[in-house]
Structure formats: C-alpha cells, structure tokens
C-alpha cells in the first residue's frame, strides 16, 4: 500500500514544524504545571516525602514478605529513618516548589506529549497506521505510568532506605539537602518511565527495518549485561536491589522480542 502523497517539504520546513511541536508541548506542560499548584500540598506530603516514613507501603510489604519467609531478625522491617532532610539555600524551597510543579506537569501531561509527537510523525505513516493513534497513546502512556510507579514504589524506597541508613562512622550524621532528595525522586520515576517505553521504541524500529526479532535474539546476552549495568546505576549498590530491578527490565526486553516477531510476521504477510 502506497503512502499518502505528501507536499514536498524542505529541511527548514521540518525544523519549523519541530519548533512549533516543542512550543505546543512546552505550553501544554506549563498549563498542567499551573494546575498542579492546587494539589501541591498533597504532592509533597503524600507522594514525594512519603518514602521517608517507615509506614510507607513498600517497607510494609517487604517486612511482611521477610516475616512470611521466616526471618527471625525482622529481615527488611524498617523501624526508623536515621536522617533528616533540610534546605540550606535561601531560595531553595521556592525553587523546589517551581520544579516540582513542572515535573508534575510533565508526568501528568505525558499523554498530551505523545499526542503531539504522533501528529508530528503521522504524515510519514501509511493511512492504515494513522488510525492507530489511540492505540499508540494508550499503550505508550500505560507503559510510562507503569514505569513511574515502578520507580516510585521500588527504586526510590530502596535508594532512600540504603543511603539513608548507610553510615561509615557514628560521628557522621545524615542530613541530606532537599535538592539531592528531590533529584533522586525525579531520576527514579522519570528514568524508569522512559525505560518502560522500550517495547514502543522496538515496535517503531522494527517497522522501519532497523531492528528484527532475530537481531534482538542474537544480542540477548549483551542486552542482559546492559540491563544489569542499568540496574546497577539506578539502584543502590547491593545485589538484592539490582536483581529485583533487573527482572522487570528483562521481561520488557522479552516482550520487545515478541513485538518484533509479530511485526516481522505481519510485514511478511503483507
């Protein structure tokens, strides 16, 4: 099936379209960021700073799990968080307020960002493929939000628990700057959200012929090494955390192979 005839566009025309794409995305994110102001107290108290409390749901589940497995010493039950979070700069809290609103705008506005990206690339697609806009936005948004939840409920509490309790000497007290903590929060949730887009990325790479299922299978062993390295980067430096994080990432890679198989089969069948 031939692609729809498109008006010939110069390189500068494409740059102009890209410029307006970025402008629309920026405006959309800023609007949602402004709206997040009305729930900013909830965002700070119930979401951002929830993992620094011992009653956070992840800590409870790990405690119940180790108790169920018969641990006599309490296993991963957390009884205290031996650190405090402080702001050491005059405008530190105001800066955090602004960037938290912007981050919330980006996360909540991700489906809109995907919609704008789809409109930008859709002229290069087949007519049949253009009808998959809803599927693309729903699936990509779902994967992103699953990644955000994965980072928030697993990566972040593991990191907080490890670094918050790590101490080389009783003389040193852990007093973390709020900027460092907020950086950890944003890195954990956004990086995981983007990593979870792997199946979508593989789908498009397979559609344009840059990747095949055979290639993904051939380089599976190297991918395992890369995934382990990524897990080591985004998690605390302990083996258990890296294994816990590596499992869903490996599952995502296997799902990507399955998607590539289906796309290749569909291409062969015409």
TrEMBL record:
Membrane topology (UniProt): Multi-pass membrane protein
Report if keyword Membrane is assigned. yes
This one is known as Sec-independent protein translocase protein TatC
Subunit-level organization:
Forms a complex with TatA.
Q: Which UniProt keywords apply?
A: Cell membrane, Membrane, Protein transport, Translocation, Transmembrane, Transmembrane helix, Transport
Q: Which gene encodes it?
A: tatC
Citing just one GO molecular function, the answer is: proton motive force dependent protein transmembrane transporter activity
Q: What does the protein in this record do? A: Part of the twin-arginine translocation (Tat) system that transports large folded proteins containing a characteristic twin-arginine motif in their signal peptide across membranes.
Quote the subcellular location field of this record.
Cell membrane; Membrane
Q: Which GO terms describe its cellular component?
A: TAT protein transport complex
The source's superkingdom equals Bacteria
**Stretches that traverse the bilayer:** 21-40, 96-115, 135-155, 188-206, 218-237, 243-263
GO BP, sorted A to Z: intracellular protein transmembrane transport; protein transport by the Tat complex
In the record, the note on similarity to other proteins reads: Belongs to the TatC family.
A Pfam family of this chain: TatC
InterPro entries reported in the protein's UniProt record:
TatC
Claim: Protein transport is one of the keywords in the record: yes
